[in-house]
Each structure stands twice: as structure tokens, then as C-alpha cells.
Design a protein that fits this description.
Number of strands: 17
Number of helices: 15
Low-confidence stretches: none
Strand content: 15-25%
Strand order of the largest sheet: 9-8-7-14-15-17-16
Largest sheet: 7 strands, mixed
Radius of gyration: 21 Å
Helix content: 25-40%
Mean pLDDT: 94
Shape: globular
């Protein structure tokens, strides 16, 4: 049984709230939260933004106010955080607002429609329990428990209580060496390539980086000019098999494969990449909701070779349990751990997998 549940769903508690409910932030996150509030009959009293973003704007029919204007207007209220933050000054600013007002961060998925409600929790109880039981250390189980309670409640204390630094993943869990053969799936502008070489030095035998977004790919090419000559770049996405698919290019981290995308990009499976460029000793997957397809396209590579893996576990609501279960099904001799790095909401919650016995 999921006896570590300490919270009720935010979508159950907010309709009972008597104080005004206001949104902090604009953009896609605010649109998603507004839609969910309307779905659950939760009245939204207003929207505010950081002072530098107010400038007399309106958003979805609401005048965009400053925090002080909200306080002058309503006094006490509930704040719903509607954007992501990872820079320490902004995270501390958010926490400071949370010390003055009740502040919650509704968990709305980056991709897909699943919402982590009480009903969702119990509908997927068996899968959640099975995934929890796969985790190899206590820190992983703490992260899992904390993320589940955060997703239910929106309370940021669950995330701040389970954070760990990224360096632990590379130095202790993955134990990257100097002669790795690296496959970087979702290379963006080269940030994860730079991170990789920062931990391994410049002696890697190969660093093959895939990035499908054309604008991001140009940034990646520019970044690669300052990286070792062992870097190779492909303007492509990863999928279950080789093909051409529609792509929604946003020139940022949220670009993704999409049935309604206006662009088309080549997609490659990991097994196909392995046949042409392999072997790989380490594979990173941050592929905007296509992690399941990436794993499915790596059946043979995982089963035969067991490369070290680092993959996102937060893009889709089900990723927290479905991805480790899928990996265990495809290659049962992996040791699976889970870490959350400082980020609001529960983004940068990643699975690390190494062959048992390392």
C-alpha cells in the first residue's frame, strides 16, 4: 500500500478555499492552470507577475498586477505558481512569497493529459508500488515519496526536502570515466555536452548529440566549435524506429514531436544509432515526452550491452512509474535510482540506471 501519502489533491482542497486565489505568472503554465481551475470550478481572482513583467499587460482578460497591488487589493490570498524556476535567486523569491502567503504549485504535466489527482493515484496504485520497489537506495525512495506528495498537494516543501546536487549523479551514480562514448539525446544548445566534458575531461572517444529543433541546432553547432573534435551532431529526434515525423519547433526547451507540428524532422531509434555509431557507454535522454519511445527503440542495445542511462522522469504524469517499469521489462539487470535537482515544479526529476554490480 502507498502508506507514505500525506496529502490530499490540490484539486480537492482548492474548491473549498475561502480566500481569493490568484495566479503568479503568465504563459503556457498559466493557461494550463486556468483550464484546470475552470474544470474544477475554482474561481481565479487575478493574476500577478514580477514587477519587471507587469507594464500594464493583460492576460486572458485579467489585468496583470504586481504582488504589492494584489496585497493592496486582497490582503491575504492563495498564490498558484504558474511557471518553472531553477535559478537560485528566483527560487528564493518564490519561497519568500510563500512565507507571506499560502503558495502552491499545481502539477500540470508538460505533455499529455494525465492529472495527478487522488483518483489518478489510486487508479495507478499497483504501478506506483511496483516502480517504488524497483528503486535501489533510500534517497531514491525519498524522492519518489516526496514527488508523489508534491504532485498531489502542490506544496514546494516536498521538493526542497528531497533535493540533491547534479554532481552526485555524475561522480557517484554514473561514475563517468575519461573514455566514455556518449549519446546525448535532446542536446538543446550544447549545455549537456559542456556538462559531460566538465565531468569527464576531453578524452571521450565519442560524443554524438541529437537535437531536432532547427534554431536550437544552430546554437548547438556554434557551441560545438569550442568542444573536442570527438563531438558529432545530428539534426534529428529520437523515436521507437527510424522515420520522419511532425515537429513543433519553439526554439527552446519545449520543442517536441507533435502530430500538429508544422515542421518535419528525421527520427532515429537508439538501436539504429548504435548500429551506425556505437557502441555507447552512456546515454542521456531529455526528449520532451518521448522518453518511452526512446527506450522502446533501444530494446536490443539495452538487452545486449547495458549502457549507463540518465533519463527524465517528469515530462508526462505517468513517467514517474511507467519509465522505470518499462526499463525493468526491457533490461531487468539495471540498478535504478531517482534524483530531484533544485527546480520548481518537479522538473529535473531524473532516473539514473547502471548495470547491477557496478
Amino acid at each position: 500500500m502507498l502508506d507514505f501519502i500525506r496529502e490530499e489533491s490540490i484539486w480537492k482542497t482548492l474548491p473549498q478555499e475561502t480566500r481569493p486565489i490568484v495566479l503568479y505568472g503568465m504563459g503556457d503554465g498559466a493557461l494550463k492552470v486556468l483550464d484546470r481551475c475552470r474544470q474544477y470550478g475554482i474561481p481565479v481572482a487575478g493574476i500577478f507577475a514580477s514587477d519587471e513583467f507587469v507594464r500594464g499587460q493583460t492576460f486572458e482578460g485579467f489585468p496583470v498586477r504586481s504582488l504589492k497591488e494584489m496585497e493592496d487589493l486582497f490582503g491575504d490570498f492563495v498564490v498558484l505558481l504558474c511557471f518553472a524556476a531553477f535559478l537560485p535567486p528566483l527560487m528564493e523569491k518564490i519561497l519568500a512569497i510563500g512565507r507571506r502567503h499560502t503558495l502552491l504549485a499545481p502539477d500540470v504535466p508538460v505533455f499529455g493529459g494525465g492529472l495527478f489527482t487522488d483518483e489518478y493515484l489510486f487508479a495507478h496504485q499497483a504501478q506506483l508500488e511496483a516502480a517504488y520497489d524497483l528503486l535501489a537506495d533510500e534517497q531514491s525512495r525519498l524522492v519518489f515519496r516526496s514527488v508523489v506528495n508534491f504532485r498531489l498537494s502542490g506544496k514546494l516543501c516536498w521538493l526542497t526536502g528531497c533535493e540533491s546536487p547534479r554532481k552526485e549523479v555524475f561522480s557517484r551514480l554514473l561514475q563517468l570515466g575519461s573514455r566514455e562514448r556518449y549519446l546525448d539525446l535532446g542536446a538543446y544548445d550544447g549545455d549537456t555536452l559542456r556538462e559531460f566534458f566538465g565531468y569527464t575531461g576531453e578524452q571521450a572517444e565519442l560524443a554524438l548529440a541529437l537535437e531536432p529543433d532547427p534554431k536550437n541546432f544552430r546554437k548547438l553547432q556554434k557551441a560545438a566549435e569550442a568542444l573536442p573534435e570527438t563531438v558529432r551532431l545530428l539534426n534529428a529526434a529520437v523515436w521507437e524506429h527510424d522515420a520522419v515525423r511532425s515537429f513543433d519547433g519553439r526554439a527552446g526547451r519545449s520543442s517536441s514531436l507533435s502530430e500538429t507540428g508544422r515542421l518535419t524532422v528525421p527520427v532515429r531509434s537508439i538501436d539504429s544509432l548504435w548500429d551506425k555509431y556505437g557502441p555507447f557507454t552512456y546515454i542521456k535522454m531529455d526528449v520532451e515526452g518521448a522518453e518511452r519511445q526512446a527506450l522502446l527503440g533501444a530494446r536490443e542495445s539495452l538487452r545486449r550491452h547495458y549502457p549507463k542511462l540518465l533519463f527524465s522522469g517528469y515530462h508526462r504524469t505517468e513517467d514517474l512509474f511507467s519509465l522505470p517499469l518499462l526499463l525493468h521489462e526491457l533490461a531487468p539487470d539495471y540498478r535504478i535510482t531517482l534524483r530531484h535537482h533544485p527546480y520548481f515544479p518537479a522538473w529535473e526529476t531524473n532516473f539514473c540506471a547502471v548495470p547491477n554490480g557496478r
